[in-house]
Amino acid sequence: MRTELTTGQRVARARRRLGWDQAQMAAAVDRSISWVSKIETGRLPLDRMSVLGQLAEVLGVEVVELTGQPYRHDSAELDSGHAAIPGLRLALQQATMPGGAALITTTALPTLPDLTARVEAAESLRQDAKFTALGDVLPQILRDLVVLCDVAEGDDVSRAEALMLRASHMARVSSNLLGHHDLGWSAVQRELVAAEKAGSPVLQAAARWDLCGVWLHEGELGAARDMARKALDDLEPHLSTNDQTVRALWGAMHLRAAVAWSRLWDRTEAESHLTEARQASAGVSEDGNVFQTQFNAVNTEIHSVEVSLELGHPRDVLSRAELVNIARIASGERQSHFWVCTAAGQMMNGKPALAADAILRADTIAPQHVRNRPIARNLVDDLRSTDRHSRSGEIRRLAASMKLS
């Protein structure tokens, strides 16, 4: 027996709590009664965050109520950093409260060179989607940065705050992946403070890029869209400096805007922002990763696949996926994301065998990333219930590890 509700069952539960029948639900989302029935019974997969966000909005619930996050796994490795959440929560509380450094006991003051090296090592874990290993080191990095930022003077203030922003970003990514969106918000708040203390428009743009990420995870699409728009307006005057960091952040913000607009089902705006991002990517390094944005030409095209998926254009998903040279991006997290989007596109095109190949490939690359993503879990659940592919055994084992069967 499966050990948790399906996403469709959670939708039905939220609908019944409102006192709605399926006809009222269908009217609220401008769909047919048949569509609602298929969603609730699992005959139609919820394979797009745009649809999940719309359902959450009309039902008056948070997205996590429909996704069932946070998920807990049976092994420490696949639990993906959940064990670190209490320590991460405390570290973020100390980082965001006035006078938080006074609550941290330390025998030796941390140094900038040491923390720089530790942040860089942690960023490698984040890009490889090794969230258990990241959780082992990140809370202490944050606590040491709280102390360092408190004692820093002169030019060291901006350097320490930049490190705090980078560490807080990793806390934001981990928290959102695991479904602890309140912690994601705390982390990005500290990023915004870091940018203000450093007095840096570049850090401000990096923090706003991450703020858009929080709102996208929470399904606050209008807020994400509006922040991306404001951030782009504020960055534009700095483009004349030809600073590569500014150009990369400019492009990365266009990608955030493209995703937001695609989830609002506005193809014109989404494609316009993709075009701007492509133009910006031509002027940055092929392996660009400014402030962990992974902004480069390959990631721009990965976003184009995601945009087509969210817009509900399955043929475009596959035609665009064919153009992505995925081996050219070093991030395991980005590679896995690409294969999850491709798997969803294959299912939308009625090709479960190719979808199974893609989702299993994503899981091989970054299992901690895949097994905590609602869309990936819905895909696995859908593939588990069909025999129209030759990898049923592998899919069933993956579903069991996700507690879907």
TrEMBL record:
Pfam families: HTH_31. PROSITE patterns: HTH_CROC1. It comes from the Bacteria. SUPFAM superfamilies: lambda repressor-like DNA-binding domains (SSF47413). GO terms for molecular function: DNA binding. InterPro entries: Cro/C1-type_HTH, Lambda_DNA-bd_dom_sf. This is Helix-turn-helix domain-containing protein. It comes from Streptomyces chartreusis.
